[in-house]
Design a protein that fits this description.
Strand order of the largest sheet: 2-3-1-4-8-7-5-6
Structural class: alpha/beta
Pfam families: RlmL_1st, THUMP, UPF0020
Protein name: THUMP domain-containing protein
Shape: elongated
Helix content: 25-40%
Keywords: Methyltransferase, RNA-binding, Transferase
Strand content: 15-25%
Largest sheet: 8 strands, mixed
Order of helices and strands: EHEEHEHEHEEEHEHHEHEEHEEEH
Number of helices: 10
InterPro entries: DNA_methylase_N6_adenine_CS, RlmKL-like_Mtase, RlmKL-like_Mtase_CS, RlmL_1st, SAM-dependent_MTases_sf, THUMP_dom
Radius of gyration: 24 Å
Distance between the termini: 69 Å
Protein backbone atom coordinates (compact mmCIF):
# COMPACT_ATOMS: atom_id res chain seq x y z
CA UNK A 1 0.00 0.00 0.00
CA UNK A 2 3.09 2.20 0.17
CA UNK A 3 2.65 4.35 -2.93
CA UNK A 4 -0.15 6.65 -1.85
CA UNK A 5 -0.76 9.92 -3.67
CA UNK A 6 -3.31 12.71 -3.62
CA UNK A 7 -6.36 12.56 -5.89
CA UNK A 8 -9.27 14.88 -6.56
CA UNK A 9 -12.76 13.65 -7.37
CA UNK A 10 -14.92 16.24 -9.10
CA UNK A 11 -18.66 16.36 -8.49
CA UNK A 12 -21.76 18.54 -8.81
CA UNK A 13 -22.73 21.44 -6.58
CA UNK A 14 -24.07 20.22 -3.23
CA UNK A 15 -22.87 16.64 -3.63
CA UNK A 16 -19.53 17.15 -1.83
CA UNK A 17 -20.72 15.57 1.48
CA UNK A 18 -22.24 12.59 -0.39
CA UNK A 19 -18.99 12.05 -2.31
CA UNK A 20 -16.89 12.39 0.88
CA UNK A 21 -19.10 9.74 2.55
CA UNK A 22 -18.71 7.41 -0.47
CA UNK A 23 -14.93 7.85 -0.33
CA UNK A 24 -14.89 7.13 3.41
CA UNK A 25 -16.88 3.94 2.87
CA UNK A 26 -14.49 2.83 0.11
CA UNK A 27 -11.52 3.36 2.42
CA UNK A 28 -9.94 6.61 1.18
CA UNK A 29 -7.67 8.63 3.48
CA UNK A 30 -7.15 12.38 4.12
CA UNK A 31 -10.61 13.26 2.78
CA UNK A 32 -11.22 17.01 2.35
CA UNK A 33 -14.32 18.59 0.86
CA UNK A 34 -13.81 21.48 -1.56
CA UNK A 35 -16.20 23.26 -3.94
CA UNK A 36 -17.56 20.74 -6.45
CA UNK A 37 -14.70 18.42 -5.50
CA UNK A 38 -13.32 16.23 -2.74
CA UNK A 39 -9.60 15.48 -2.34
CA UNK A 40 -8.28 12.26 -0.81
CA UNK A 41 -5.28 9.93 -0.87
CA UNK A 42 -4.91 6.34 -1.98
CA UNK A 43 -2.77 4.14 -4.21
CA UNK A 44 -3.18 2.99 -7.84
CA UNK A 45 -5.56 0.21 -6.84
CA UNK A 46 -7.70 2.71 -4.97
CA UNK A 47 -7.76 4.98 -8.04
CA UNK A 48 -9.13 2.05 -10.07
CA UNK A 49 -11.66 1.31 -7.33
CA UNK A 50 -12.77 4.97 -7.06
CA UNK A 51 -13.48 5.10 -10.81
CA UNK A 52 -15.44 1.85 -10.69
CA UNK A 53 -17.42 2.51 -7.52
CA UNK A 54 -18.08 6.22 -6.98
CA UNK A 55 -21.68 7.12 -7.81
CA UNK A 56 -21.46 10.89 -7.35
CA UNK A 57 -18.07 11.59 -8.97
CA UNK A 58 -17.74 13.06 -12.46
CA UNK A 59 -13.94 12.61 -12.73
CA UNK A 60 -11.04 11.32 -10.68
CA UNK A 61 -7.91 13.43 -11.22
CA UNK A 62 -4.32 12.65 -10.22
CA UNK A 63 -2.52 15.96 -9.54
CA UNK A 64 0.92 16.14 -11.11
CA UNK A 65 2.42 19.64 -10.79
CA UNK A 66 1.43 23.08 -9.48
CA UNK A 67 3.13 26.37 -10.26
CA UNK A 68 2.51 30.11 -10.38
CA UNK A 69 2.09 31.81 -13.74
CA UNK A 70 1.70 35.45 -14.67
CA UNK A 71 1.52 35.20 -18.45
CA UNK A 72 0.83 32.74 -21.27
CA UNK A 73 4.60 32.57 -21.74
CA UNK A 74 5.01 31.37 -18.12
CA UNK A 75 2.46 28.65 -18.74
CA UNK A 76 4.20 27.56 -21.95
CA UNK A 77 7.66 27.43 -20.30
CA UNK A 78 6.46 25.60 -17.18
CA UNK A 79 4.62 22.96 -19.23
CA UNK A 80 7.48 22.60 -21.72
CA UNK A 81 9.93 21.90 -18.87
CA UNK A 82 8.04 18.80 -17.65
CA UNK A 83 9.23 15.31 -18.72
CA UNK A 84 6.18 14.34 -20.81
CA UNK A 85 8.12 11.52 -22.52
CA UNK A 86 7.87 9.59 -19.22
CA UNK A 87 4.10 9.41 -19.64
CA UNK A 88 3.60 9.07 -23.40
CA UNK A 89 5.43 8.28 -26.63
CA UNK A 90 5.71 10.28 -29.84
CA UNK A 91 3.10 8.07 -31.52
CA UNK A 92 0.61 8.47 -28.66
CA UNK A 93 -2.22 10.99 -28.55
CA UNK A 94 -3.16 13.80 -26.23
CA UNK A 95 -6.21 15.75 -25.04
CA UNK A 96 -6.35 18.72 -22.70
CA UNK A 97 -9.29 20.06 -20.68
CA UNK A 98 -8.87 23.45 -19.02
CA UNK A 99 -10.85 25.31 -16.37
CA UNK A 100 -9.97 28.94 -15.76
CA UNK A 101 -10.94 31.34 -12.93
CA UNK A 102 -8.60 34.28 -13.37
CA UNK A 103 -8.37 37.92 -14.34
CA UNK A 104 -5.14 37.30 -16.25
CA UNK A 105 -6.24 34.21 -18.14
CA UNK A 106 -9.76 34.29 -19.49
CA UNK A 107 -10.04 31.71 -22.29
CA UNK A 108 -9.95 28.05 -21.34
CA UNK A 109 -9.70 27.01 -25.03
CA UNK A 110 -6.62 29.17 -25.44
CA UNK A 111 -5.04 27.69 -22.29
CA UNK A 112 -5.65 24.18 -23.68
CA UNK A 113 -4.03 25.18 -26.96
CA UNK A 114 -1.00 26.75 -25.26
CA UNK A 115 -0.51 23.64 -23.10
CA UNK A 116 -0.75 21.37 -26.12
CA UNK A 117 1.79 23.53 -28.02
CA UNK A 118 4.29 23.29 -25.16
CA UNK A 119 4.01 19.50 -24.95
CA UNK A 120 4.19 18.80 -28.70
CA UNK A 121 7.05 21.31 -29.12
CA UNK A 122 9.03 19.46 -26.44
CA UNK A 123 8.55 16.19 -28.34
CA UNK A 124 9.43 17.80 -31.67
CA UNK A 125 12.61 19.33 -30.21
CA UNK A 126 13.65 16.07 -28.55
CA UNK A 127 12.57 13.47 -31.11
CA UNK A 128 11.95 15.38 -34.35
CA UNK A 129 8.33 14.24 -34.28
CA UNK A 130 5.20 15.27 -32.38
CA UNK A 131 2.21 13.47 -30.86
CA UNK A 132 -1.28 14.15 -32.25
CA UNK A 133 -4.39 15.36 -30.51
CA UNK A 134 -7.33 12.95 -30.07
CA UNK A 135 -10.24 14.49 -28.19
CA UNK A 136 -12.19 11.25 -27.80
CA UNK A 137 -9.79 8.48 -26.83
CA UNK A 138 -6.35 9.98 -26.18
CA UNK A 139 -3.48 8.06 -24.59
CA UNK A 140 -3.14 10.86 -22.08
CA UNK A 141 -5.86 13.25 -20.97
CA UNK A 142 -4.68 16.22 -18.95
CA UNK A 143 -6.62 18.63 -16.80
CA UNK A 144 -5.36 22.19 -16.40
CA UNK A 145 -6.94 24.22 -13.61
CA UNK A 146 -6.05 27.90 -13.25
CA UNK A 147 -7.20 29.81 -10.18
CA UNK A 148 -5.95 33.43 -10.47
CA UNK A 149 -2.17 32.85 -10.88
CA UNK A 150 -2.00 29.27 -9.67
CA UNK A 151 -1.90 26.52 -12.25
CA UNK A 152 -2.58 22.87 -11.35
CA UNK A 153 -1.73 20.17 -13.88
CA UNK A 154 -3.43 16.81 -13.33
CA UNK A 155 -3.79 13.52 -15.14
CA UNK A 156 -7.43 12.63 -15.80
CA UNK A 157 -7.77 8.98 -14.75
CA UNK A 158 -11.42 8.68 -15.82
CA UNK A 159 -11.53 9.86 -19.44
CA UNK A 160 -15.13 10.47 -20.44
CA UNK A 161 -17.23 11.86 -17.59
CA UNK A 162 -18.14 9.13 -15.09
CA UNK A 163 -21.85 9.86 -15.57
CA UNK A 164 -21.46 7.93 -18.84
CA UNK A 165 -21.97 4.57 -17.18
CA UNK A 166 -22.22 2.58 -20.39
CA UNK A 167 -25.79 1.24 -19.98
CA UNK A 168 -27.66 3.95 -21.87
CA UNK A 169 -28.23 3.40 -25.56
CA UNK A 170 -31.55 5.13 -25.60
CA UNK A 171 -32.68 8.34 -23.94
CA UNK A 172 -35.88 10.34 -24.10
CA UNK A 173 -36.07 14.08 -24.71
CA UNK A 174 -35.02 15.20 -21.23
CA UNK A 175 -32.84 12.48 -19.73
CA UNK A 176 -31.47 13.00 -16.25
CA UNK A 177 -27.69 12.80 -15.77
CA UNK A 178 -26.67 9.54 -14.02
CA UNK A 179 -24.55 11.30 -11.37
CA UNK A 180 -27.44 13.66 -10.59
CA UNK A 181 -29.79 10.65 -10.35
CA UNK A 182 -27.44 8.81 -7.96
CA UNK A 183 -27.00 11.98 -5.88
CA UNK A 184 -30.78 12.48 -5.62
CA UNK A 185 -31.22 8.87 -4.49
CA UNK A 186 -28.45 9.07 -1.89
CA UNK A 187 -29.78 12.44 -0.61
CA UNK A 188 -33.21 10.84 -0.26
CA UNK A 189 -31.74 8.17 2.01
CA UNK A 190 -32.52 5.34 -0.44
CA UNK A 191 -30.70 2.19 0.73
CA UNK A 192 -32.66 -0.64 -0.85
CA UNK A 193 -34.64 -1.51 2.30
CA UNK A 194 -38.14 -0.98 0.85
CA UNK A 195 -40.12 -0.98 -2.40
CA UNK A 196 -39.17 1.77 -4.87
CA UNK A 197 -41.21 3.60 -7.50
CA UNK A 198 -40.33 6.18 -10.14
CA UNK A 199 -43.78 7.14 -11.47
CA UNK A 200 -42.41 9.24 -14.39
CA UNK A 201 -39.42 7.13 -15.29
CA UNK A 202 -38.51 8.37 -18.78
CA UNK A 203 -35.56 6.32 -20.05
CA UNK A 204 -35.08 4.63 -16.66
CA UNK A 205 -32.00 6.34 -15.20
CA UNK A 206 -33.34 6.67 -11.64
CA UNK A 207 -34.56 3.05 -11.69
CA UNK A 208 -31.17 1.73 -12.77
CA UNK A 209 -29.21 3.85 -10.29
CA UNK A 210 -31.67 2.82 -7.53
CA UNK A 211 -31.15 -0.87 -8.29
CA UNK A 212 -27.37 -0.47 -8.33
CA UNK A 213 -27.46 1.25 -4.92
CA UNK A 214 -29.87 -1.39 -3.53
CA UNK A 215 -27.64 -4.26 -4.68
CA UNK A 216 -24.34 -2.44 -4.06
CA UNK A 217 -23.35 -2.88 -7.71
CA UNK A 218 -20.46 -0.63 -8.83
CA UNK A 219 -22.03 2.04 -11.10
CA UNK A 220 -19.27 2.00 -13.70
CA UNK A 221 -19.04 -1.73 -14.21
CA UNK A 222 -20.54 -1.43 -17.72
CA UNK A 223 -18.12 1.22 -18.96
CA UNK A 224 -16.04 0.30 -22.00
CA UNK A 225 -12.92 2.09 -20.82
CA UNK A 226 -11.24 4.35 -18.26
CA UNK A 227 -8.41 6.70 -19.20
CA UNK A 228 -5.95 5.02 -16.82
CA UNK A 229 -6.06 1.87 -18.99
CA UNK A 230 -3.86 3.72 -21.51
CA UNK A 231 -1.29 4.87 -18.97
CA UNK A 232 2.21 3.40 -18.99
CA UNK A 233 1.81 2.03 -15.45
CA UNK A 234 -1.57 0.36 -16.22
CA UNK A 235 -1.82 -2.86 -14.22
CA UNK A 236 -4.52 -5.07 -15.74
CA UNK A 237 -4.09 -7.82 -13.12
CA UNK A 238 -4.54 -5.36 -10.27
CA UNK A 239 -7.64 -3.92 -11.95
CA UNK A 240 -9.12 -7.41 -12.29
CA UNK A 241 -8.46 -8.09 -8.59
CA UNK A 242 -10.15 -4.82 -7.62
CA UNK A 243 -13.13 -5.65 -9.85
CA UNK A 244 -13.45 -9.11 -8.29
CA UNK A 245 -13.27 -7.73 -4.76
CA UNK A 246 -15.98 -5.10 -5.35
CA UNK A 247 -18.23 -7.66 -7.04
CA UNK A 248 -17.99 -9.85 -3.92
CA UNK A 249 -19.72 -7.04 -2.02
CA UNK A 250 -22.84 -7.12 -4.22
CA UNK A 251 -25.86 -7.87 -1.99
CA UNK A 252 -29.30 -9.38 -2.41
CA UNK A 253 -32.41 -7.24 -2.80
CA UNK A 254 -35.78 -8.41 -1.49
CA UNK A 255 -38.17 -5.66 -2.60
CA UNK A 256 -39.53 -4.31 -5.89
CA UNK A 257 -38.28 -1.48 -8.10
CA UNK A 258 -40.90 -0.19 -10.52
CA UNK A 259 -41.11 2.51 -13.14
CA UNK A 260 -44.19 4.02 -14.81
CA UNK A 261 -44.42 6.24 -17.86
CA UNK A 262 -47.34 7.23 -20.07
CA UNK A 263 -45.21 7.25 -23.23
CA UNK A 264 -44.82 3.88 -24.98
CA UNK A 265 -41.48 4.95 -26.47
CA UNK A 266 -40.13 5.94 -23.02
CA UNK A 267 -41.18 2.54 -21.65
CA UNK A 268 -39.35 0.74 -24.51
CA UNK A 269 -36.21 2.84 -23.97
CA UNK A 270 -36.27 2.25 -20.22
CA UNK A 271 -36.62 -1.51 -20.72
CA UNK A 272 -33.68 -1.49 -23.19
CA UNK A 273 -31.47 0.46 -20.79
CA UNK A 274 -32.41 -1.81 -17.86
CA UNK A 275 -31.42 -4.81 -20.00
CA UNK A 276 -28.10 -3.17 -20.95
CA UNK A 277 -27.39 -2.68 -17.25
CA UNK A 278 -28.21 -6.40 -16.63
CA UNK A 279 -30.82 -5.43 -14.05
CA UNK A 280 -34.02 -6.86 -15.59
CA UNK A 281 -34.52 -9.25 -12.65
CA UNK A 282 -34.81 -6.28 -10.27
CA UNK A 283 -36.71 -3.65 -12.27
CA UNK A 284 -40.19 -3.70 -13.82
CA UNK A 285 -41.27 -0.93 -16.19
CA UNK A 286 -44.92 -0.44 -17.14
CA UNK A 287 -46.95 1.92 -19.26
CA UNK A 288 -49.05 3.62 -16.61
CA UNK A 289 -50.37 7.09 -15.86
CA UNK A 290 -49.23 8.02 -12.35
CA UNK A 291 -52.34 10.15 -11.87
CA UNK A 292 -54.51 7.06 -12.34
CA UNK A 293 -52.32 4.75 -10.27
CA UNK A 294 -52.38 3.81 -6.63
CA UNK A 295 -50.07 2.16 -4.15
CA UNK A 296 -50.02 -1.60 -4.65
CA UNK A 297 -49.64 -2.80 -1.04
CA UNK A 298 -49.36 -1.68 2.58
CA UNK A 299 -45.57 -1.80 2.71
CA UNK A 300 -43.53 1.39 2.98
CA UNK A 301 -42.78 2.88 -0.45
CA UNK A 302 -39.80 5.04 -1.40
CA UNK A 303 -40.56 7.23 -4.42
CA UNK A 304 -38.08 9.41 -6.33
CA UNK A 305 -38.85 11.09 -9.65
CA UNK A 306 -38.02 13.87 -12.05
CA UNK A 307 -41.30 15.36 -13.31
CA UNK A 308 -41.34 17.14 -16.69
CA UNK A 309 -40.11 20.72 -16.35
CA UNK A 310 -42.08 22.54 -18.98
CA UNK A 311 -38.67 23.49 -20.40
CA UNK A 312 -39.05 21.18 -23.38
CA UNK A 313 -42.54 19.83 -22.88
CA UNK A 314 -45.66 21.97 -23.10
CA UNK A 315 -47.55 21.42 -19.85
CA UNK A 316 -49.97 23.44 -17.73
CA UNK A 317 -47.58 23.54 -14.78
CA UNK A 318 -49.87 24.68 -11.93
CA UNK A 319 -52.47 22.03 -12.81
CA UNK A 320 -49.80 19.36 -13.30
CA UNK A 321 -48.21 19.96 -9.89
CA UNK A 322 -51.61 20.08 -8.20
CA UNK A 323 -52.31 16.61 -9.64
CA UNK A 324 -48.98 15.34 -8.29
CA UNK A 325 -49.99 16.51 -4.79
CA UNK A 326 -53.52 15.13 -5.07
CA UNK A 327 -52.34 11.72 -6.33
CA UNK A 328 -49.78 11.40 -3.53
CA UNK A 329 -52.30 12.44 -0.88
CA UNK A 330 -55.17 10.26 -2.06
CA UNK A 331 -53.48 7.17 -3.51
CA UNK A 332 -50.09 6.77 -1.82
CA UNK A 333 -50.37 6.49 1.99
CA UNK A 334 -47.20 5.27 3.72
CA UNK A 335 -44.93 6.77 1.08
CA UNK A 336 -41.83 8.91 1.24
CA UNK A 337 -41.90 10.87 -2.02
CA UNK A 338 -39.03 12.94 -3.40
CA UNK A 339 -38.91 14.85 -6.65
CA UNK A 340 -36.68 17.43 -8.29
CA UNK A 341 -37.91 20.55 -10.05
CA UNK A 342 -36.49 23.78 -11.40
CA UNK A 343 -39.97 25.31 -11.53
CA UNK A 344 -39.87 26.92 -8.09
CA UNK A 345 -43.23 28.65 -8.63
CA UNK A 346 -45.04 25.42 -9.45
CA UNK A 347 -44.11 23.87 -6.08
CA UNK A 348 -46.78 26.05 -4.44
CA UNK A 349 -49.46 24.12 -6.34
CA UNK A 350 -48.57 20.72 -4.86
CA UNK A 351 -50.78 21.46 -1.86
CA UNK A 352 -48.52 19.55 0.53
CA UNK A 353 -45.77 21.00 2.67
CA UNK A 354 -42.34 19.58 1.86
CA UNK A 355 -40.46 18.40 4.96
CA UNK A 356 -37.13 19.09 3.20
CA UNK A 357 -35.90 21.25 0.32
CA UNK A 358 -32.39 20.63 -1.00
CA UNK A 359 -30.79 22.97 -3.54
CA UNK A 360 -29.34 21.21 -6.61
CA UNK A 361 -28.49 21.97 -10.20
CA UNK A 362 -29.93 20.00 -13.09
CA UNK A 363 -27.47 21.06 -15.79
CA UNK A 364 -27.55 24.85 -15.56
CA UNK A 365 -31.01 24.93 -13.97
CA UNK A 366 -31.16 25.76 -10.28
CA UNK A 367 -33.51 23.18 -8.82
CA UNK A 368 -34.90 21.85 -5.55
CA UNK A 369 -35.12 18.26 -4.41
CA UNK A 370 -38.30 18.12 -2.31
CA UNK A 371 -39.34 15.56 0.26
CA UNK A 372 -43.00 14.82 1.04
CA UNK A 373 -44.02 12.40 3.80
CA UNK A 374 -47.39 10.83 3.03
CA UNK A 375 -48.53 9.13 6.22
CA UNK A 376 -50.53 5.96 6.65
CA UNK A 377 -54.16 6.24 7.59
CA UNK A 378 -55.04 9.57 5.99
CA UNK A 379 -57.22 7.75 3.46
CA UNK A 380 -59.01 5.65 6.09
CA UNK A 381 -59.79 8.70 8.22
CA UNK A 382 -61.34 10.47 5.22
CA UNK A 383 -63.43 7.41 4.39
CA UNK A 384 -64.83 7.18 7.92
CA UNK A 385 -65.85 10.84 7.78
CA UNK A 386 -67.60 10.52 4.39
Amino acid sequence: MGNNFKMIAKTMFGFEPLLAKELRELGAMDIKEGTRNVSFTGDNGFMYKANLCLRTAIKVLKPYKSFKIYSEEDLYKSIYALPWEEFMDVDDTLAIDATVHSETFTHSKYISLKTKDAIVDRFRDKFGKRPDVDLDFPTLRLNIHIEQNFCDVSFDSSGQSLHKRGYKTATNIAPINEVLAAGMLLQSGWNGQSDFLDPMCGSGTLLIEAAMIACNIPPNLNRKEFAFERWKDWDADLFEKIEESVLKKVREFHFTIKGYDTSPSAVHKAIDNVENANLSEFIKVERQDFFESEKENDRHLHMVFNPPYGERLEIDMPAFYKRIGDTLKQNYPGTQAWFITSNLEAIKNVGLRPSRKIKMYNGALESRLLKYEIYEGTKKVHKQQD
